[in-house]
Protein: ABC transporter ATP-binding protein
Organism: Flagellimonas profundi
Amino acid sequence: MTIEINNLHKQFGKNQVLKGVDLTIDQGQIYAILGPNGSGKTTLIKSILGMVIPDEGLISVLDTPIKKNWKYRKKIDYLPQIANFPPNIKVKELIHMIKDLRNSPSCEDELIALFGLEPFLNKKLSTLSGGTKQKVNIVLTFMFDTPLIILDEPTTGLDPKALISLKDLIRKEKAKGKTILITSHIMQIVEEMADEILYLLEGEIYFKGSIKELLKRTEQTNFEHAIAAITTTGSHA
Ligand SMILES: Nc1ncnc2c1ncn2[C@@H]1O[C@H](COP(=O)(O)OP(=O)(O)OP(=O)(O)O)[C@@H](O)[C@H]1O
């Protein structure tokens, strides 16, 4: 099992965001974490990454409880929703910095070519367009070889060509047996890529299942409509 979560609670001040999340994530599948704005998708992801400390509950990653155990983080690659790059360094310097920090084998050249980033390697990060920054973000996420990949809104700002490259890349990583978690508000991407849908609502996993199961449960034929209908059809997981 890749991730096991039991009774996860997290509140910020009076705002109870996660209210007892139970979740099992199996190896080798693509999971889409969905839910309305503010439903706690990023909070859930950050809890798995150890960047948010839960108030209650247990999380195990790759069969190891993560509490007070930071080493598991080396087994996860994470693409943050908003990458805060240092503005004054060049793309190639950033890539080398991250490589030095991780000190693991990496395949950045392949990825730089895939996303056509060669002309930008000597440019400062602050001068790049949003989509180009996101391509750099993707290179940094995929250049190492880890069993678990977490992508928070990975398609933001990408042009159609880059989007196709990203989807191919995700499929290639899945074929290697990796587990991939994705959040996205673009239902077309989710429908194309996800094996399993996790729908967060009011602090809990409201639905967990395949797209086929979701369509059946909501009595819809269209995935986007099924997602929209999910909360009105009593689909509690
Ligand atoms: N560090 C924080 N301090 C205070 N409140 C926070 C913090 N992080 C998140 N929240 C609050 O927790 C709730 C859930 O936020 P989160 O970012 O997890 O939602 P989300 O489902 O990822 O949303 P979106 O779809 O808009 O990205 C929001 O109400 C947010 O304001």
In short: The chain has one domain: 3-232. The longest helix spans residues 160-175. The mean pLDDT is 93. Strands lie at 3-12, 15-25, 30-34, 56-61, 64-65, 76-79, 148-152, 179-183, 196-201, 204-209.
